[in-house]
Inverse folding.
């Protein structure tokens, strides 16, 4: 915020359905048809505010020649898309994406559900306005796509990508994000949030969707960070709720600038589901060579010892690093994405 008053040579641009290329003087050029609500107003009004995501197809949302930085992304769409579409970001003409995450999970809305989030990096507002404020620098090119995994078209996809064209520092790292899901076991009740990362960078955020399969408290396990090939973690939290900024089993939901527990869903006939986020903005976790992040799933046995849990856990890891990155692209199927 201390730079907001300073003048800059940055060129402001924006991509939307009304200006798909983001080029200057290219917005609001669509001519309304006879079936368009703007047919009496003509060109220059609200003619093409959204697009349709075709069934089983990948749609390119942005293809920006750099250098520059993406400043803000806003979008809204039918909730059926939250766990049925995949966002991918490619930096500098790379072949494998640096960001590959289901749409809702990228905006900290897990399980395919919509709920409000009021944080610094992600804001989800009534009634489905998804906002992302992660700064995303790039030198040569930024390409963003979305894949519709459904057998049907998704109509009414509204989006706005605000970015600036400006020289980027040589030491600027690129944003990465990876989704993972696992069912923990009694024998080894650990979920891997992030692994197989090599290079220099810093870890900046975690989103978790937790489906509880056992009675009682579910968050006794620790989050552990293994930095630069460590056998034992140098950063070790005291419990799941502690890592996400709460204490003593939460007891209620909350949403704060850097951490939150915005979802605690308990419905008759359904398993309990939880949603959590933690942004390492004041406290990024630096690594020079590699990083591995894990989450334990522990509860309590009646005799006061820890109970290993068999819970269904999904996560998104956010980190900045220098390119190139290890190819972590996945083959997504709907049955892998559906919530319980």
């Amino acid at each position: 915020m201390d730079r907001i008053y300073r003048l800059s040579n940055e060129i402001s641009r924006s991509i939307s359905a009304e200006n798909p290329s983001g080029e200057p003087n290219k917005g609001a050029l669509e001519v309304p048809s006879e079936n368009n609500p703007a047919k009496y107003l003509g060109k220059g009004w609200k003619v093409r505010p959204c697009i349709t995501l075709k069934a089983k197809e990948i749609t390119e949302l942005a293809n920006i020649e750099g250098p520059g930085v993406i400043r803000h992304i806003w979008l809204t769409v039918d909730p059926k898309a939250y766990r049925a579409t995949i966002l991918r970001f490619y930096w500098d003409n790379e072949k494998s994406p640096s960001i590959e995450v289901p749409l809702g999970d990228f905006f900290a809305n897990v399980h395919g559900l919509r709920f409000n989030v009021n944080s610094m990096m992600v804001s989800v507002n009534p009634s489905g306005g998804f906002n992302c404020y992660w700064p995303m620098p790039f030198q040569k090119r930024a390409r963003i796509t979305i894949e519709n995994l459904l057998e049907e078209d998704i109509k009414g996809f509204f989006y706005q990508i605000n970015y600036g064209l400006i020289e980027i520092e040589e030491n600027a790292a690129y944003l990465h994000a990876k989704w993972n899901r696992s069912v923990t076991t009694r024998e080894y009740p650990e979920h891997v949030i992030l692994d197989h990362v090599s290079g220099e960078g810093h870890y900046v955020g975690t989103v978790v969707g937790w489906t509880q399969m056992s009675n009682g408290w579910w968050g006794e396990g620790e989050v552990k960070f293994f930095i630069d090939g460590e056998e034992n973690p140098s950063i070790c939290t005291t419990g799941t709720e502690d890592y996400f900024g709460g204490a003593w089993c939460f007891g209620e939901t909350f949403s704060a600038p850097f951490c939150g527990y915005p979802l605690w869903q308990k419905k008759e006939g359904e398993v309990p589901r939880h949603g959590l986020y933690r942004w390492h903005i004041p406290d990024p976790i630096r690594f020079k060579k590699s990083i591995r992040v894990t989450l334990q799933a522990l509860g309590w046995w009646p005799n006061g010892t820890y109970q290993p849990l068999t819970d269904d856990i999904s996560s998104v890891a956010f980190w900045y690093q220098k390119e190139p990155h290890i190819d972590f692209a996945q083959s997504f199927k709907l049955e892998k994405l559906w919530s319980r």
